[in-house]
Amino acid sequence: MAICHGFHAEYVTSSRVQTLQSVSPPRKIRAMGKELGSTPTKDTRSFPVRFKKSLYSLWLFTKDDTPTFVVPNTVFGVCGALAGSRLIIHNGTFTSVLLRLPYIFLFNWSNLLVFDLANQRLPESAREDTLNKPWRPVPSGRMTSTQVRKWMLLTIPLVLAFNHFAMHVGTETALLYTLTWLYNDLKGGDEGWFLRNAIIAAAFGLYNLGSLKIAAATGAASNVTVAGYAWIAIISGVILTTMHVQDLKDVAGDKARGRKTAPLVMGDLPARWTLAIPVPVWTAYCACFWGLGWLIAAPAAVLGGYVAWRCLCVKGKKADRKTWQLWCLWTAVLYMMPLVR
């Protein structure tokens, strides 16, 4: 790997590895982050081999977020469309909605890819990922920031065009790009945990609206009912007040990056209480919104209670990662409530 100009000349000597080991951890992390963004060495392999490697690298960008983000949003769209005309007016059948599953998934995944490319190409993200997610393409050395930027030049217009002309959700996609710009390039995701949650909550609203419209095979926003918009807003409220559950597992990397997440700003225990209280409250509120009885709402209530308990009583990087995954499952269960009204 080439060393960028900001490095001291001693790093390009034969004792480069020993020098890196002798510096303090924060300085070493900064050095690694700069190296990861360096100009790549020319790849002499055949085009098919390079293309296959690039596709796998693109998958790695979204690997961590697909089961916890793409899948729940897809569930929202499918369940919303299968709930009849409660959320959106359409003439689709059970079979036609299920046949739209690949399109809903592709909408969520393609926009997630654009976000992850924009996020993970940044030098500060590379430094963070060396601690939290070292298998990602940039910190692992599979791709450089320069290569990621070039992929963005290709994927952004392609994804926007496909979502606009093929799935009729171009407005949602364009607005998601605006939020991506605010979060990454303008550092909105680093300013403070509440602003970060607010941007993500707005993004979830657009993802869920797009998923609902694709599932119902209608591009008209006017087909979404008042209850549909209210449900989307409620879920965004859930995200706004509980999304920082994901920050519990990433404290080390966020601290190295200088990000002002809830655990770092408020302290670990207060941050956990700000999750343990809203989760069961939102479960009860969502059940009341749909007029569900206690028996039907029991799965969401039990899962939400378990998530709240884990936030307070089960700690550690692996445990917090599991709590984050269970939180994502809890949101997916909430998304199913319109079906059982």
Keywords:
341 residues; mainly alpha; 19 helices; disordered N terminus
Could you walk me through the main structural features you see in this protein, from its secondary elements to its overall organization?
There is one protein chain. This protein is an all-alpha fold and 341 residues long. The protein has a domain at 86-224. The chain is built from 19 helices and no strands. Helix 6 (101-120) packs antiparallel against helix 9. It is globular. The termini are far apart.
What is the ordering of alpha helices and beta strands?
A: HHHHHHHHHHHHHHHHHHH
Our measurement of the CA-to-CA distance between the termini, rounded to an integer number of angstroms, reads 58 Å
List the uncertain runs: 1-35
Rg, alpha carbons: 22 Å
- The helix count comes to 19
The biggest sheet, with number of strands, parallel, antiparallel or mixed sense and barrel status, is: none
Share of helix among residues? over 70%
Mean pLDDT: 87
User: What overall form do the CA principal axes indicate?
Assistant: globular
Annotation, overall tally of beta strands: 0
Q: Give me the secondary-structure category.
A: mainly alpha
